[in-house]
Amino acid sequence: MTMVSQSDSMVGSSRPLVVQITTVPQTLYRLFPAVVAHLKQKGFAIKAISSTGSWKKSDEVAEYLNIEIGSVNLSRSFSPVQDFIALVQTTRILRRWRPEIVHCHTPKGGLVGGIASWLARVPCRVYTVRGLPHMTATGVLKFLLLTSERVSCALAHRIILVSPSVRDELISLGIGDQAKMVVPGSGSAQGVDADGRFNPEHVRSNYATSSRSELGIAESDFVVGFVGRLTRDKGVKELWETWQRVREFSPASHLIIAGASNEPRRGDVDEILQALNLDSRVHIVGNVEAIEKYYAAMDLLLFPSYREGFSNAVLEASAMSIPTVAFDTVGCRDGVRDGITGFLVPVHDSNAMADCVIRLCHDDNMRRQFGRDAREWVLREFQPSDRHVMLEHEYSELLSKRICS
Length: 405
Hints:
single chain; 405 residues; alpha/beta; Rossmann fold
């Protein structure tokens, strides 16, 4: 059964309707508020389609964004029956709404949304590639993910890639028409609010108590942070291995972990999570809203992810003047300027990662300089307003061509 959350019913016929399609509503909640506000201001009507959600429900997100959201049976995992039902539901909604533009996000949203918008004869179709999960998949799953990416890119009139390294990876695989591809500036689909939410001065003034004091961490202690889903692909194994060496080197060190652990396809990480939970110097805070408060407690971000699109965590930490040590892989190398805003090390090399963390722990001047350079780079290259204008321009250009195929 298809449910539609009622909210933004004032849609004039003269305003081109853009429908954003994501797999889960929390993507809309986290990444789209400023985009929706900008596009509305510029004369676009906005609606969305996603699953009903778990952490954030679609009706809650609809009210928060003041838009209408059509809820369908989308899931992150491949399920032929469920995916077919979602495709039928999405196609019906699009035929009823008759949008001028459909903009799909995430692999499943791109596949189901792309096919549905083609079936519904939507004039302009956009697909944002936010990551490449096939890179860590094997066997049939890898084949399905690659096939999904090929179909999504083939059906799109414009392909937005969140980083240069994602673009290069797709080109190397022969996926997508290069003439359709665009990367927003230096990368990232939405940039980061370095002037407001992730401004370290604002964060310090906005909270009466620091997260260090709440967690029982002294101001003089060295704090390493990790922000991300607690899954195999995010490098939980290497996080644990790196931390083991760091805690031995620095008895006054702590590790703050922020992120959800109840993720699908998280891999065999249960024993590691149990070990982290038993460590008195590890502070697992879960999936938090005010993540900026925890960035303010960190001296360094540890980011051992095997693959990314473009890491929001790295950008947020950089905006907070925090250097990053990350793996040199797709989507991570775009967010760290090696030797300037942090360090990049070979994928899976937890010893090299620990060496870099220990070096920055020992060298306060280098760590602070890296943090200053990281914030300056983010302020210069990753302003959200630039991404909003770029997206508005892409929509307007597609509308002027009125493609339909």
